[in-house]
Amino acid sequence: MSTAPLPIRLVVGLGNPGSEYVDTRHNAGFWWVDALARELGTGLRVESKFMGLAGRAKQGDEEVWLLQPTTYMNRSGHAVAALARFYKILPQEILVVHDELDLLPGEAKLKQGGSHAGHNGLKDIQAMLGSADFWRLRLGVGHPRTLGLNQPVVDFVLHRPRQDEQPQIEEAIARSLAAWKWLSRGEFSKATMLVNTKPKIAKPEA
Prior knowledge:
It is built from seven helices and seven strands. By secondary structure, the chain is of the alpha/beta class. Belongs to the PTH family.
């Protein structure tokens, strides 16, 4: 007996609060949720009981919540669990958007479950939900070694992308944002294909 797909009811963008972190690589998840909020015509406001900035919008007959935890990255799970439990949202109905060192700027990947791979935000969310079954949208920011930089990872993610990287990250955000219509319907195979297939750049004719 097949079951109907569960649409995404909570979208969480990971980042760090404070003006000094706004434009840093570690806040790529915040950027994505800000873009989705604009598309859905909603705003985010302080919700102290959810330890973050939150907003909700109508998606067909359903409501979707948007959340940016303001607990700092390593305690993101406290905010996610508070909202999810209050509205009885299952892990499978949660999408967490975050920066990804193992993907180059311009790349994005969508998947469900898996290891937190040392990402402190994902690690805390898994611990607080007691599950790794939530969906993850990984936005590539590159790794200092891959990008030829002699820079510690902690320092790297807390700095702005280089001038040539910012448009690539923004393109990945726009492309993955186009998958929202499928995510909101629980049509994950279509969403995954759209996000994970990077458009080919046409080579100029000789």
